[in-house]
C-alpha cells in the first residue's frame, strides 16, 4: 500500500495503520497548514531566513494508508458509501460535512461502469485570526467515483479545491470484495496524501502541526467507519425485511 | 503571501440548501436504482432522469463557487480516479 512513493516527495513519512478506513473527511486538515504557512510568511517578511530557503520548489508530502474489513458484502458496503452523508443520524456524527452535491454523473451502459463527481463542503473552523486571514472557514472538495459493477470495484478520489495554493490533500479509497471471503466481506483500502506547497522550509514547523492533523484525521476516520458500519447494518435489516439482497 | 487575494475569496461560501428537497428526491431515486438495478446487472438504462434534471437546474442557479460550477458544466466527462494498487 505505502509503496506508492511520489517521486517529488522530499520528506516521505508514512504511517500504516489497520485501525480504520473512513470515507473522506480529511479536508478539515488544511486550515492547520494555513496557520503554519501564515506564521512562516510573517517570518519571511520580517527578514528572517531559514537554512535551505532557496529550495522553493520542494514540496513536503505526508502519506499514510489504512485498511479495514467490513463483514458485509461488497454490494451492501458500496450502497452504504453512497448513503452515508445523507442519513440524518450520520449527519449528526459527521456534523462538519455541510453539503454534498452531485455535480455530474455518467453511466457507461455497455461496460457497466458508473462515474460521478460530487462536491463536498466541509466546515473547518480555526482560530479567529486564521479566519480573518484566510477569509473563510469552509473548504470545498471534489470527489470522483467510479464503480465497476462487472468486476465489483468502487474507487473514490477526493481532493480539496479550496486553499489549493497552500496545501493539497488527496484521499483515495477503494472497496473490493475481500479475497478471503469475496461474497461476504469487503476490504476497504485508503490512502491519504497531504502536500504542502511550495515553501518547503516550512517543513520543520509544519511537522508538529501536521502531527495534530494526523490525530484529527484518525479521529475522523473512526467516525467515518462507525457511520459505514451503522449504515451497513441498517441496509442489512432493510434487505431482510424487503427480501432484497443488498 | 496573497492575503488580499484570500480575502477576496471570502464570499465563496456555497449554500445549495435551496436545492435540498430536489437533492433528496434525486438521492433517494439514485440509491434505490443503485441497489436494486445497477448492482444486479441492469445498467443498460439510466434512471432518475427527471429528478436529476430538476436538481441540476437548481444547482446551476445556486452554485456560487466557480470551481464547482466548472464541474457542473463538464457533465459527461469521465473522470477516473487514479487507482490504488491492490
UniProtKB/TrEMBL annotation, chain A:
Q: Where are the transmembrane segments?
A: 22-44
Nuclease found in the keyword field: no
Q: Which GO terms describe its cellular component?
A: mitochondrial intermembrane space
Q: Name one Pfam family in it.
A: PRELI
Q: Which InterPro entries match?
A: PRELI/MSF1_dom, Slowmo/Ups
Query: What UniProt keywords are attached to this protein's entry?
Result: Membrane, Transmembrane, Transmembrane helix
Residues of the signal peptide: none
Which residues lie in coiled coils?
Answer: none
Top-rank taxon, per record:
Eukaryota
Domain annotation PRELI/MSF1: ranges: 61-240
Protein name listed in UniProt: PRELI/MSF1 domain-containing protein
The taxonomic lineage of its organism, from the top, reads:
Eukaryota, Viridiplantae, Streptophyta, Embryophyta, Tracheophyta
TrEMBL record, chain B:
InterPro entries hit by this protein: MDM35_apoptosis (IPR007918)
Domain of life of the native organism: Eukaryota
Pfam families named among the record's database cross-references: UPF0203
GO MF, one example: phosphatidic acid transfer activity
Record GO biological process: phospholipid translocation
This protein's GO CC annotations: cytosol; mitochondrial intermembrane space; nucleus
| Coiled-coil region list | none
Keywords, in A-Z order: Disulfide bond
Question: Family, per the entry?
Answer: Belongs to the TRIAP1/MDM35 family.
Its protein name is: Uncharacterized protein
Species whose genome carries this gene? Lactuca virosa
Amino acid at each position: 500500500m505505502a509503496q506508492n512513493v511520489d517521486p517529488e516527495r522530499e520528506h516521505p513519512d508514512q504511517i500504516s495503520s489497520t485501525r480504520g478506513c473512513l470515507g473522506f473527511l480529511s479536508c478539515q486538515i488544511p486550515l492547520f497548514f494555513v496557520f503554519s504557512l501564515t506564521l512562516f510568511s510573517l517570518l519571511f517578511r520580517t527578514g528572517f531566513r531559514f537554512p535551505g530557503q532557496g529550495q522553493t520548489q520542494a514540496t513536503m508530502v505526508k502519506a499514510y494508508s489504512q485498511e479495514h474489513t467490513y463483514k458485509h458484502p461488497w454490494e451492501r458496503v458500496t450502497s452504504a458509501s453512497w448513503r452515508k452523508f445523507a442519513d440524518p443520524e450520520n449527519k449528526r456524527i459527521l456534523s462538519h460535512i455541510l453539503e454534498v452535491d452531485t455535480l455530474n454523473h455518467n453511466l457507461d451502459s455497455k461496460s457497466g461502469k458508473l462515474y460521478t463527481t460530487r462536491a463536498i463542503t466541509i466546515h473547518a473552523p480555526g482560530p479567529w485570526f486564521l479566519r480573518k486571514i484566510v477569509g473563510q472557514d469552509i473548504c470545498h472538495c471534489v470527489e470522483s467515483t467510479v464503480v465497476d459493477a462487472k468486476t465489483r470495484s468502487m474507487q473514490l478520489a477526493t481532493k480539496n479545491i479550496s486553499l489549493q495554493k497552500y496545501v493539497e490533500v488527496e484521499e483515495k479509497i477503494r472497496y473490493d470484495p475481500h479475497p478471503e471471503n469475496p461474497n461476504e466481506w469487503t476490504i476497504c483500502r485508503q490512502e491519504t496524501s497531504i502536500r504542502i506547497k511550495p515553501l518547503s522550509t516550512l517543513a520543520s514547523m509544519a511537522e508538529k502541526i501536521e502531527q495534530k492533523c494526523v490525530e484529527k484525521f484518525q479521529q475522523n476516520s473512526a467516525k467515518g467507519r462507525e457511520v459505514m458500519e451503522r449504515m451497513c447494518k441498517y441496509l442489512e435489516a432493510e434487505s431482510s425485511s424487503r427480501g432484497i439482497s443488498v | 503571501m496573497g492575503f488580499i487575494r484570500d480575502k477576496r475569496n471570502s464570499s465563496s461560501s456555497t449554500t445549495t440548501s435551496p436545492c435540498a428537497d430536489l437533492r433528496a428526491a434525486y438521492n433517494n431515486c439514485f440509491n434505490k436504482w443503485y441497489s436494486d438495478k445497477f448492482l444486479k446487472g441492469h445498467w443498460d438504462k439510466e434512471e432518475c432522469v427527471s429528478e436529476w434534471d430538476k436538481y441540476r437546474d437548481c444547482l446551476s442557479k445556486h452554485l456560487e463557487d466557480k470551481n464547482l460550477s466548472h464541474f457542473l458544466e463538464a457533465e459527461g466527462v469521465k473522470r477516473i480516479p487514479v487507482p490504488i494498487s491492490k
